């Protein structure tokens, strides 16, 4: 297997596991930890599961004119 293909497979596996962990977190809701810690863990797993939602976007002045 080529190194790039292996890298893609590993990234996909990590993402799938993160999505499964997110679903478990939503189901269990960690009643034994504080809301702040639960939010922090949920955000960290969300970044792994859905990295496209956390990418920095460059904002231009022309975009501000549209608002």
Proportion of helical residues: 55-70%
Distance between the termini: 49 Å
Q: Quickly count the helices.
A: 3
Q: Unreliable runs, pLDDT <50, ≥5 residues? A: none
What fraction strand?
Answer: under 5%
Shape, per Cα inertia axes: flat
**Radius of gyration using CA atoms only:** 17 Å
Structural class: mainly alpha
Helix-strand sequence:
HHH
The number of domains: 1
Overall number of strands: 0
Overall pLDDT score? 78
The largest sheet, given as strand count, sense and whether it forms a barrel, is: none
Report on the architecture of this protein:
- This protein is mainly alpha-helical.
- The protein has one domain (3-65).
- Helix content is 69%, strand content 0%.
- It is built from three helices and no strands.
- It has helices spanning 3-28, 35-49, 61-65.
- α1 runs antiparallel to α2.
- It is flat, with a radius of gyration of 17 Å.
- The relative contact order is 0.11.
Name the features.
flat; 3 helices; 67 residues; mainly alpha
Q: How is this fold's topology laid out?
A:
Elements: H1 3-28, H2 35-49, H3 61-65
Helix pairs in contact: 1-2
Short description:
The chain has 3 helices and no strands.
């Amino acid at each position: 297997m080529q190194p790039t293909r292996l890298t893609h497979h590993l990234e996909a596996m990590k993402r799938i596991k993160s999505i499964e962990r997110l679903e478990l977190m939503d189901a269990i809701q960690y009643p034994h930890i504080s809301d702040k810690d639960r939010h922090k863990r949920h955000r960290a797993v969300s970044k792994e599961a859905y990295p496209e939602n956390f990418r920095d976007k460059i904002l231009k002045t022309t975009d501000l004119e549209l608002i």
